[in-house]
Write a structure and sequence with these properties.
Length: about 230
């Protein structure tokens, strides 16, 4: 089965408080995006990568691609105003039956075994959505106050969210809704059930300076030598 990875890297990263979008910040002298691409390329030699980039940093993104040793050329496209629109732009380049990973570029700590597991589960179930348990207590805010809800009923959702193209491509032929913060929500809105799999506690979305410090500690440069 053909494999595509749509790596969404078109966000501006204002929560990090830096001018440079977080996917281009350096850890051990390599951009965060470099680690993410490296892990996908290491997972499958025959993977087709589509990289979604901000218009203002398009050349910066292409320069990162040039450093990778990809068997198939990494294709790049300019993203949109929201993650949903960026994914839509990436998917517009896929026109064959395949298994498609959609991954946040800023989750550079995922492992090849998570990618393999998502692929295998998607072959069996049509999709694979990595999730981890919530560790904090949870409160739901409503119009008149807030209430405690059962932590055991909560899952925190990660990427790569993985789908058979026959499900994903038609589901994304829809208009944007505010609830579409990930791909599972888009596919569910199209009437499909999604299949949850175990994610990884290390697979954090680098969002704040603290996350960056954690990633710096966890990323082991020798393991990433090409
Ligand atoms: O904004 P959020 O943290 O949900 O972003 C998750 C991923 O989606 C990031 O890798 C970011 O670069 C990407 N993104 C995008 N286009 C946008 C917004 C976010 O590709 N317009």
């Amino acid at each position: 089965m053909k494999k595509y990875a749509v790596i969404v890297a078109a966000g501006s990263g204002i929560r990090m408080g830096s001018v440079l979008p977080k996917q281009f910040l350096l850890i051990h002298n390599k951009p965060i995006l470099w680690y993410t691409l490296h892990t996908f390329l290491k997972s499958y030699k025959d993977i087709n990568i589509i990289l979604v980039l901000p218009a203002e940093y398009y050349d910066t993104g292409l320069a990162v691609c040039d450093e990778m040793n990809a068997a198939y050329p990494i294709r790049a496209v300019v993203g949109g105003d929201t993650r949903f629109h960026s994914v839509q732009k990436g998917l517009s380049l896929i026109d064959e039956e395949s298994i498609v990973f959609i991954h946040d570029a800023v989750r550079c700590l995922l492992s090849p075994s998570l990618i393999h597991h998502c692929f295998e589960e998607t072959q069996k179930f049509g999709s694979a959505i990595p999730c981890v348990d919530a560790r904090d207590s949870i409160r739901l805010i409503h119009a008149t106050g807030h209430k405690s809800i059962k932590r055991s009923e909560i899952k925190l959702v990660q990427t790569p969210q993985t789908f058979q193209s026959a499900i994903l491509l038609p589901a994304y032929q829809t208009n944007y809704q505010e609830e579409f913060t990930d791909d599972a929500s888009v596919v569910e809105a199209a009437g499909y059930e999604v299949h949850l799999v175990d994610g990884e506690s290390n697979n954090i979305k680098i969002t704040t300076p603290l996350d960056l410090a954690i990633a710096e500690e966890l990323l082991d440069p020798p393991q990433f030598s090409v």
